[in-house]
Structures are given as structure tokens and as C-alpha cells.
Design brief:
heterodimer; A: two-stranded antiparallel sheet; 4 strands; B: alpha/beta; Rossmann fold; six-stranded mixed sheet; 10 strands; 26% strand; amino-acid transport (chain A)
């Protein structure tokens, strides 16, 4: 029982990170049709933001905020420098552009900072546990769950209640029509990138706080999982991305915890087999994106 | 003489090697209605989209209320006082009626003014008020057309580019749409009306231009165009 509860907390926590990354990918994809392979480096940069802030003596919470800000700044810089010029190009061209950006950033991290992991030392108490009756539960995963929920609630409010949020949903349906109405499309697209950076920054902070180090590949693997999550959920569907993220996180943690030792090395294969099975049953994903009717 | 709402001169638009629009001249008087007629593929929509800043043109000029807007993008054209209800209506289907209007209100710098206009639109088109929370994709064709017009009016335009508003609508709805065009003119909003339904368009217009194969085949008053039997049989099929 105790292990099960702990594993569920871990699964929701890890799934939340995947879900935030997947949601960031989906927000950008839904508007500009960009499958952003450089999203992992946005997350990594957020991790380095935490590292550098701590190195300059910032208090821990300020360092985490710096990490989030660094990811937002990186997402906006990539949009401005690399992706704005490619607006309207076909999906493959955009994909290859994002590969190039991703590789450039990785090399910059390796040569500019370090190819090896750099340590992030946060207060001991953060990695402690708390007790719920008989159960012992980690503080970090618990906090990360609440942070994730707050991020989703905030994003939902933005998309439902603010003009720029409604404009982002309109842009996902018909960007040209939005421009015909005179709405400044660049601002809407930049906002989408900023939000995807914000989510990647929060994911980076949770990730680094739990793992205690940053390296140039830090963002790569979680974002890879997030890609799987977006496809599982339905490419371009925001709700699908969140659902897919939690599903992949859940499968991964449960496979890790409950697979017999002989099968443990095949954890990722087992998880991906489950994803493939789900896609065979629902080829458009769990919650497919609604596309607007266009004549 | 007051300055024209829209003045297009020598417009030429190419799609690759195809010259879709060839040397089109077109005027909309301030507060007037110009009907742009012609068969399918004659270049009506391309001309309208070029005036809206949404198509690059190879040659020619577009002047809006006396300002040269040649090569301007749609953002600038809207800020010069032009709004568009495009072909196919293109309402945001996954947004509610109210949200469709909210998005268009984003171009109004004053938030309170934008909210006021949105309320005005829902009074002016009561069916939109009734369905404010409904998804625009679930509206009927006629309701979607009203939404497209209301959405265009959110920016407070002096010239409306209205593309095929009657297409696919029931006759009663078509009448309603044309009443709206009349009402807009009464308010002093000029309209460039692209229509396949030539008879109706000629009723509301004070000027008409007929396109054929991307070029102007005839231009004049509605009476002149309507009386030209050859023109009718050749291009208007009405």
C-alpha cells in the first residue's frame, strides 16, 4: 500500500512535468505548425539559469525564478531569431530548422558551460519527506504536483479569459483570418512561445530541484517523452497533450516499480509498446484536435 | 469632391505564371456600395484580398481614404479603416460567438470601447446575442455570415469588404443580409460587395464593376450594367 501511494505521487509528479512540456509543444504547434525540437534546450537553459543564479549567490527561490525567466527569454529569442523568418514554411522545413537550433544550443552549452553535469545544491529540507498517517511521501514530488496544477489553472485562465488567450485559440484555427482582422499576429505568436517557455521553465525547475544537477542533455529526454505524449494525446490538441503527458509519466513510473527485475531494462520499450497499442486503437490520439471548418 | 473610400488602379496579381488579375481599376465612393461581379474564377476574391493587404500584387496601387496603401499588410489596412468579411465567412468555429467578437475587438486600443461595441453588435444582431455562448461552428450559415459581418464591424471601419455574403443561404437569409448592407450604407459605411447573385447586388449598389478572366469587362451604374443584355448573358448568368 505504502509503495503504491508513493509510486502514484511519483507518477503524477513525473507525468506533470511531461504534461507541461507536451502542452508547451502543443501550444506552439497548434498555431505555427512547428514541431519544436529545440524545446528541450529551452528547458535545459532554464536549468542553467538556476545553476548560474545559485553560483552568483542568489537565494534558492530567487534562483528557481531566474530559471523560469531564462526559459521564457530563450523561447522568445528562438521565436524572434529563428522561427519568425520561417513562418508559413512547411512542417518539414520548420522541423529541420528546429533540429538545427537544438544542435547549435547543445554545442553552446557544452563549450560555453560544461559538457559534464554541473551541480545544483538546494536546501536539504527540500529533498525530505512528510508523513500522512502511516505513509511517507517525498516533499519534492508533492510540491511539484501543486506547482503543475497551478500552472495548468493559470494557463486555462489565460486561454479562456484574456483577449490574447482567446486570440491564441483563434490563431490555432485560422492564423490568416486573425491577421485579416488586423490583430497583430506576431504578438500572438510571441505570447504562445513565451507560454511554452514558461511551462518548460517550470518543468526545468522541478526537474533540477529533484535531480540536483544540470547537463547539456538535461532537456532532451523529458522532451522526447513529451513528444510521445503529444502524439498519444493527439497532435495539436492542448487537452490531449496534458492527458498524454500524464499517461506517459504514469506508465513509466508503474513500469519501473512493478515490472519483474528481468524485464526492468526494457522499461521504455514496454511503455512505448503501450503507446503504440493505444495509437492503433485511436490513430488520431486520445483527444484529437478539433480543426475549424474551412471552405 | 470627397476622397474615395477605395481606389484601385492597374491591379495585377499573379499566382505563379497565372495572371489572376490583370490591370483592374475599381472605385468605392465614401459611403457608397460598389458591386464587384463576374463568374467563378474571374478574379473577384483575389481583387478583394489584394485590397485587404492579404495578396501581394505584381503591379498597381491601392489607395484607401486618400492614403497610399500599396503593399501594406492587413494590420495596416485595418488601421486605415477597412474591415473584411471574407469568402467562406471563416468564423472561428471552436470559439463562442462572443469570443469571435472579443478577438476582433483586440485591435481597438480602448478596452471599454471594445466591450461596448461587442454589446452593441449583440443588440444589433439579436440572434448573436441569444447565442453568445454557443460555438460559432454550430451556427447556421446565415448566422455565421452575420457573425462575420459583426466581427468585421468590431474595428469600427469606414469601408467593409464583403465577399459572397449570400452564398449557400436560404432566400430569407439572403434578404436579411442585403438589409444589413443597406443599413451599413445608411450609416455611411462604404461597401465593396463581391457577389455571384448579380440581380440582388445591383439592387443595393450605386456602382458596379464586372470582371471576366481577371480583367474589367464593364463598369458603370447598376442600370447600365443591368441593361446590357450581352453582358448579362456572357458574365452574369442572371
Amino acid at each position: 500500500m505504502e509503495t503504491l501511494v508513493q509510486q502514484v505521487v511519483n507518477a503524477v509528479s513525473l507525468g506533470g512535468v511531461y504534461a507541461m512540456l507536451a502542452l508547451g509543444l502543443a501550444i506552439v504547434f497548434s498555431i505555427v505548425r512547428l514541431i519544436n525540437f529545440a524545446h528541450g534546450e529551452v528547458m535545459t537553459f532554464g536549468g542553467y539559469g538556476v545553476f548560474l543564479a545559485l553560483a552568483f549567490g542568489a537565494p534558492p527561490l530567487a534562483a528557481l525564478a531566474t530559471g523560469v525567466g531564462a526559459a521564457v527569454a530563450m523561447a522568445l529569442a528562438l521565436e524572434r531569431a529563428a522561427f519568425r523568418a520561417m513562418r508559413g514554411a512547411d512542417v518539414v522545413t520548420l522541423l529541420i530548422t528546429s533540429f538545427a537550433v537544438s544542435e547549435i544550443l547543445k554545442v553552446l552549452f557544452q563549450n560555453g558551460i560544461s559538457a559534464r553535469p554541473v551541480p545544483i545544491s538546494l536546501p536539504q529540507s527540500w529533498s525530505g519527506t512528510w508523513r500522512l498517517g502511516e505513509l511517507t511521501i517525498g516533499v519534492a514530488p508533492t510540491v511539484s504536483i501543486f506547482v503543475t496544477l497551478a500552472a495548468f489553472a493559470g494557463l486555462t485562465l489565460i486561454l479562456r479569459r484574456t483577449t490574447v488567450g482567446v486570440a491564441m485559440r483563434a490563431a490555432a484555427e485560422d492564423l490568416e483570418m486573425l491577421q485579416l482582422l488586423g490583430v497583430r499576429a506576431n504578438r500572438v505568436v510571441a505570447t504562445a512561445f513565451a507560454l511554452s517557455g514558461l511551462l518548460a521553465g517550470v518543468a526545468a525547475v522541478i526537474w533540477t530541484a529533484q535531480r540536483g544537477s544540470v547537463d547539456p542533455m538535461m532537456g532532451f529526454f523529458p522532451v522526447l517523452k513529451a513528444f510521445i505524449a503529444t502524439v498519444l494525446g493527439g497532435l495539436g490538441s492542448l487537452g490531449g497533450a496534458v492527458l498524454g503527458g500524464f499517461a506517459v509519466g504514469f506508465l513509466e513510473v508503474m513500469a519501473q516499480a512493478f515490472l519483474p527485475p528481468a524485464l526492468a531494462p526494457y522499461r521504455d520499450a514496454v511503455v512505448l509498446a503501450a503507446v503504440i497499442a493505444a495509437l492503433l486503437a485511436r490513430p488520431d490520439g486520445l483527444l484529437p484536435a478539433r480543426r475549424g471548418e474551412r471552405s | 469632391m470627397s476622397v474615395a473610400a477605395l481606389e484601385v488602379r492597374g491591379l495585377e496579381v499573379r499566382y505563379g505564371p497565372v495572371r489572376a488579375v490583370r490591370g483592374v481599376d475599381l472605385d468605392v465612393a465614401p459611403g457608397g456600395v460598389t458591386a464587384l461581379l463576374g463568374a467563378n474564377g474571374a478574379g473577384k476574391t483575389t481583387t478583394l484580398m489584394a485590397a485587404a493587404g492579404a495578396r501581394r500584387f505584381a503591379a498597381g496601387s491601392v489607395t484607401i481614404f486618400g492614403r497610399d496603401m500599396t503593399g501594406a499588410d492587413p494590420e495596416a489596412v485595418v488601421r486605415a479603416g477597412v474591415a473584411i468579411s471574407p469568402e467562406g465567412r471563416r468564423v472561428f468555429a471552436s470559439l463562442s460567438v462572443e469570443e469571435n467578437l472579443t478577438v476582433a475587438g483586440a485591435v481597438v486600443p480602448d478596452r471599454a470601447l471594445a466591450r461596448g461595441r461587442r454589446a452593441e453588435m449583440m443588440e444589433r444582431f439579436p440572434i448573436l446575442g441569444e447565442r453568445r455562448r454557443q460555438l460559432a461552428g454550430l451556427l447556421s450559415g446565415g448566422e455565421q455570415q452575420m457573425l462575420a459581418v459583426a466581427r468585421a464591424l468590431m474595428s469600427g471601419p469606414r469601408l467593409l469588404l464583403l465577399d459572397e455574403p449570400s452564398l449557400g443561404l436560404a432566400p430569407r437569409m439572403v434578404d436579411r443580409i442585403f438589409e444589413i448592407v443597406e443599413a451599413l450604407r445608411a450609416e455611411g459605411i462604404a461597401v465593396l460587395l463581391v457577389e455571384q447573385n448579380a440581380a440582388l447586388a445591383l439592387e443595393v449598389a450605386d456602382r458596379a464593376v464586372v470582371l471576366a478572366n481577371g480583367a474589367v469587362a464593364a463598369a458603370g451604374t447598376p442600370a447600365e450594367i443591368a441593361d446590357d443584355a450581352l453582358l448579362r448573358s456572357a458574365y452574369l448568368a442572371a
